């Protein structure tokens, strides 16, 4: 996976921000949030571009899992009338969905920590939020890498616009 400039910028800022004073945090918190939002948006965009290049069977299996988990039905098991019937596609989709879910949970945890830090005016929580944000981006990058591994190396591609977002 190529490095995404917005994510690298955010990681650098968060690494620096861990050492900031209370006053610097108060002055920079909006900028930190903006950079974090840009990193999340870039990762989301890249993730979508990668998944658009998946084979149809994997895409269908993943979409089925998303619908099942969203409805809370069947404990993530394949429904009989599902368009995804290839066992390998289902296994791969589950692996990616689990990685995506783990990254999403880490992202929500980081955002909640930043929200708490702001409410409590706590630099300790803000620092923890920085570490959690970096961790969430690393998990998201790993999930995208797993998703990229499912893109066929030959044959037609559904979406050829797969440049790294800035």
Q: Helix share of residues?
A: over 70%
Q: Are there runs of 5+ residues with pLDDT below 50, and where?
A: 73-81, 155-162
Beta-strand residue fraction: under 5%
Mind summarizing the main beta sheet?
none
Distance between the termini: 14 Å
Average pLDDT, all residues = 86
- SSE string: HHHHH
Tell me the Rg in angstroms. 18 Å
Structural category is mainly alpha
User: What is the count of DSSP helices, taking H or I runs of 4+ residues?
Assistant: 5
* Tally of domains: 1
Number of strands: 0
Structural commentary:
72% of the residues lie in helices and 0% in strands. The chain is mostly helical and 166 residues long. It has one domain (5-72, 85-148). The longest helix has 34 residues, at 87-120. It starts with a helix and ends in an 18-residue tail after the last helix.
Short description:
The protein has 166 residues and is mostly helical. It has helices spanning 5-17, 22-51, 56-71, 87-120, 123-148.
